[in-house]
Automatic annotation (TrEMBL), chain A:
Gene Ontology molecular function terms on file: 6-phosphofructo-2-kinase activity; ATP binding; fructose-2,6-bisphosphate 2-phosphatase activity
Gene it is expressed from: LOC114800842
Binding site for substrate: R246, H247, G248, E249, S250, D251, L252, N253, R296
Gene3D superfamilies: P-loop containing nucleotide triphosphate hydrolases (3.40.50.300), Phosphoglycerate mutase-like (3.40.50.1240)
Keyword Chaperone on entry: no
CDD domains assigned: HP_PGM_like (cd07067)
Domain 6-phosphofructo-2-kinase: 25-239
SUPFAM superfamilies, per the entry: P-loop containing nucleoside triphosphate hydrolases, Phosphoglycerate mutase-like
The protein, known as: 6-phosphofructo-2-kinase domain-containing protein
Domain of life, source organism: Eukaryota
Recorded family membership: In the C-terminal section; belongs to the phosphoglycerate mutase family.
Active site: H247, E316
A GO BP annotation: fructose metabolic process
Automatic annotation (TrEMBL), chain B:
Subunit note: Homodimer.
The keyword ATP-binding belongs to this UniProt entry's keyword annotation: yes
Catalytic residue list: H238, E307
An annotated GO cellular component: 6-phosphofructo-2-kinase/fructose-2,6-biphosphatase complex
Biological process (GO), any one: fructose metabolic process
Annotated CDD domains: HP_PGM_like
Family: In the C-terminal section; belongs to the phosphoglycerate mutase family.
SMART domains to which the protein is assigned, alphabetical: PGAM
Job description of the protein: Synthesis and degradation of fructose 2,6-bisphosphate.
Binding residue positions for substrate: R237, H238, G239, E240, S241, D242, L243, N244, R287
Source organism of the structure: Denticeps clupeoides
Keywords: ATP-binding, Hydrolase, Kinase, Multifunctional enzyme, Nucleotide-binding, Phosphoprotein, Transferase
Protein name: 6-phosphofructo-2-kinase domain-containing protein
Gene it is expressed from: LOC114783493
Amino acid sequence: LPPLTPAALSVTCTCFSEARVKLCMTNCPTLIVMVGLPARGKTYISKKLTRYLNWIGVPTKEFNVGQYRRECLKIYKNFEFFRPDNEEGLKIRRQCALSALNDVRQYLCMEGGQVAVFDATNTTRERRDTITRFAEQNGFKVFFVESVCEDPDVIAENIVQVKLGSPDYIDCNTEEAVADFMKRIKCYENSYQPLDEGLDRELSYIKIMDVGRRYLVNRVLDHIQSRIVYYLMNIHITPRSIYLCRHGESDLNVRGRIGGDSGLTSRGKEYAKSLGHFIQEQNIKDLKVWTSQMKRTIQTAEALAVPYEQWKALNEIDAGVCEEMMYEEIQEHFPLEFALRDQDKYRYRYPKGESYEDLVQRLEPVIMELERQENVLVICHQAVMRCLLAYFLDKSAEELPYLKCPLHTVLKLTPVAYGCKVESIFLNVEAVNTHRDKPENVDISRPTEEALLTVPAHQ
Amino acid sequence: MSSEQNELTQTPLLKIWVPWVHSTLSRRRGSSVPQFTNSPTVIVMVGLPARGKTYISKKLARYLNWIGVNTPNMTLFPLIGVLFRNCASNALTDIGAYFTKEQGQVAVFDATNTTRERRGLILSFAKEKGYKVFFVESVCDDPDIIEQNIMQVKLSSPDYENCDKEEALEDFLKRIECYKMTYVPLDEEKDRHLSYIKIFNVGSRYLVNRVQDHIQSRIVYYLMNIHVTPRSIYLSRHGESDLNLLGRIGGDSGLSTRGQMYASALAAFVQSQSIRDLKVWTSHMKRTIQTAEALGVPYEQWKALNEIDAGMCEEMTYEEIQGHHPEEFALRDQDKYRYRYPKGESYEDMVHRLEPVIMELERQENVLVICHQAVMRCLLAYFLDKSADELPYLRCPLHTVLKLTPVAYGCKVESIFLNVQAVNTHREKPPNVDINRKTEDALQTVPEHV
């Protein structure tokens, strides 16, 4: 057996076995098929689900048939295009669906995709049969996600949030757009065949009713479908904000040392006080406060004088043998490790420590609970905050370890439309910079100066 | 704001940072225990006899207890008429007492609860006390499943002690018919304000309504992942390692010669068992991977299956721990489940990190898990419903496979020693756990090593 250096990149390929390091989510690709009338949140769900799956490491892509239609049609005139008796319209729409399915096949069979989300109304049994046959031919598992909602307020809000700003309505005023969209919905209503408990009992699906009040889940086949169901059952659309910040500046921070479990500097304590004031001013309804189990986040939370919850899962990345070292010391004692880290910062695991990839896995329950909750302030650490931020802002594994999360700065995230609004609030207490950019030279034989080029200044 | 408010101290056992004011532990605002729910929850089982209610209740209670949610099981065997009403209200009073006195978080009320009237009684009681209610209804119309059910668990009940099997089956089916007449299932319309999950035909379909909080969400996820397909779970440690021989804990060493022999023996054993579609799981540590390699089959590595992190005590012998950190060594003996190694983990932390492994084990069928002593103790405690006090002392010797097969309401265990000698790594709790104990007392139960 070749010596397994725990330090090496976490994906170890041995020639001696068929061992796979990552947990196998599914052994054949999965096609998720959205079902529902317009303005039922299908695209919202598709995008969110895609973001979640990619974050946990399952390569996923969404295919929005509406996009294909816009590319094909170029100009959207009005709802008449969607009339069920519009032969020309039907032809184009069918072509677009097939074109999208073709791209799905390409993604899942040739581009290493594991999950494809097919975002369209798919409201007729006939259309769904076509898709099922397509999946069978290609060896994909199919999982339907249907959103059913009759609440006029929810539908109206949906239209305001995401339809009015759509390219389809770029030249319309609000009333015109809303009127047209309502007529569009009507075009689908008569031919809508919801998933049926009897007729569709052999299919695998989740039916989401009234934005999550009720769910019907049928024939979950495997691990990934089970995780998808769990995720969909935990998300909600109640307006709220998530506040992310790091602990106040710590003693090890100012000395340029990573990890450890030190306390706050006097500036760090000042920050904690400012954070307390900030929270007060924001007047947040039922704010939950979470920290890690490390001294510096707890000290920060203590200054807020409110109850808080400690999560071990929010602890900073474990730097193993490099704990409490300065970058200069890591370069001196472990130059190979230091270079390997720069080569693939996301997957690199510290000897006897963790990688960003490990962090994401351990943070998944935190994300799940954040989805369940409403207003939350998470006081955590640099690497942890990068992982959480990457989830909310849909950042790739390459970008994630280099996201800027400076000390003494609160990021306020507010879900809006299909994404997340970010407000960055620096609380006006100076702190050391702990952000180290990727240096140009990541070669293992690079000279010391080049390795240390991007190390931020410290005592 | 005084500077004292920013002073923290780390609790010696759990290694949790808490405020330190005037040399006493201040009122803690920080909770280090996960907030599963903010009020006690009563889980109410609903369904005709032989629908798996007791199976589900016991399994659910076992799972919740394992993840740290205090959950006693209140089983109520159905009785007819007035007696029924009295028994039910007795059970409810017990639940009330349990929540107040023992600070339980979840109680499972296992009875048929098949009428709207009965459920109304429970709802009023809960509302009065400020408890949340979550219904779990099991609906089944497959006669084969029902018969299987009856054969497996009903016929061995005291009610049928002196009966012939065929007669007993018939009698039980008649019992079910009695309930059917008054059975009112949870209704999508009329019960739309209740929180519940309806399980159809052992899990092919679920209807979930109004999940209120975290614990209900976890319960739903769990119930949706369990199944009743017969299968076996094989638990084993890695083969004997070099550090095992030296009496050192943790680390990432390779197998000793005997450890290699065990790996081969394990391969032969697995072959001989002719297990259908066996999945093999290991940790990311060298010794479990080396063991799996000998099997010559694909396997999956889980970082979550890594051995407990002994932090500052990694790769030490117990003698060295006693020499360098006698207080830590004593604290560990005082509460081995909750004790966290400095810069390391506790058994309690491990249960938390193993939860996704358990969830996936529930989803899977035949699995062989090659892991480590502390990890195996945690997994075993889940399957055999062992308490937090027993868990850290469960015997999981090297070179021994534990074959677990679910049967009736529990788990059959077969212990198979694969006939390759190995060092003993089990350290019993010594009689003296005082921090001022003598070295000999501390090291009394340390197993022999090189």
